[in-house]
Write a structure and sequence with these properties.
This protein has 17 helices and 2 strands. By secondary structure, it is mainly α. The protein has one domain: Growth Hormone, Chain: A. It has a two-stranded antiparallel sheet with strand order 1-2. Helix 2 packs antiparallel against helix 14 and helix 5 runs antiparallel to helix 9. It starts with 5 loop residues before the first strand and ends in a 34-residue tail after the last helix.
Length: 446
Amino acid sequence: MPSASRAVSDSGRSVPSGLWRDADFRRLWTGQTVSQLGEHASLVVLPLFAVLTLNAGADQLGVLRAVGQAPILLLSLFAGAWVDRWRTRTTMVLTDAGRALALGAAATAGLFGLLGLPVLLAVAFAVGALSVFFDVAYQASLVRLVERDQLVRGNSALEGSRSAAQIGGPALGGTLVSLLSAPVAAASSALFFALSFLSVRRIRRTESVPGRAEHLPRVWRRIHEGLRFVAGDALLRSVCLASAVFQFSFAAVMTAYLLFLPRELHLPGTVVGLALAAAGPGALLGSLLAARLPGRFGHGPVLVCAAVLGDGAFLCVPALHGSSAVTVAALLAIGFVSGLGGQLVNVTVMAVRQAVTPDGMQGRAAATITFVGMGLTPLGSLAGGFLAQQWGLRTSLLVTAAGMMLSPVVMASSPLRRLGRELPAPHDAPPTAVHPGPSRDAPPRH
């Protein structure tokens, strides 16, 4: 943005030069922050309830986590096609309301003593499915709200809020499950989604949805266009591969980790929540550094070094024993370092992806990378549960943590390593076929 107080974008709309002067950006940031807080709390509440109250084994915990992650594989591509066609504000509002209702139903079932594993599986799937749509929508929403030269700072602010949610969410979820009950913990997550609903729905700026005047092809054709665009770009292909390796291994690590802390190290639920929340302060620092380091050292070097730092931290976990203060301090340090490195990677990769992608392809590009990168997480969770059951928690943690180190190897061997201080320019998207069909205001055809 220029230094003047206001600037005019390519679409002709006037945009405040400072992100925090923009009321709509503040509303997006607030809604995304509390939504992420609710999501991170629920990601701890449901597994801890299964482990501590239902005495779930490694295989059952793996299934629970896989069910919650399955929507990434099943729905990401549809979410991208949907978001590119509809207003992101509407999508975020509806998904917030749906998640609040799902967790509210879990809380109600818990009060009547009906919150068993089948109910947890249903709630985990519903929350996971709606989160897929929300996450794609808020990423695409930023591109429609701010100018391209504000993307890094905008992403830094949004990812910083996600980091804050990583601090409060797990600690809140673990504490509520440990000290109170699963219904109270579920109700707290539902409340945060309700607050996000109230904030996002107040966004006033009219979105300029790409291609609004055109008749759009069927959803399958749009999904294919997104896949072809990502597959045809060397940078985005590399992001997909590195993300897939990391997410599969990380899902396996976390399945064993959530069992390792309470059963091998004999830590209470509150400490488990704090250990998971330790990634939050590191991620918050990573978000702040991500606004500066790529411009100083280059995006490629920052990506590779941050991935080595964050992924390598988990190699220290299998060496821990007992529940002493030293062990707890080590867990907090490991979480902090992993959050720092991981967030540097997240913000930098998101900025690269948004920079090389045309506006009309933002939702589908984000969804395609999510589909390819995170689509293997259900299998990773199942693999983590299987390995923990067969080899023991300590050995499975060591093997799966070593698998995470393949991600920085992929980055260092790809064009990502050569990215400099400046973000690349947008690449051409494949032409969108035009077919006779309903107007933009009609429901999508599947």
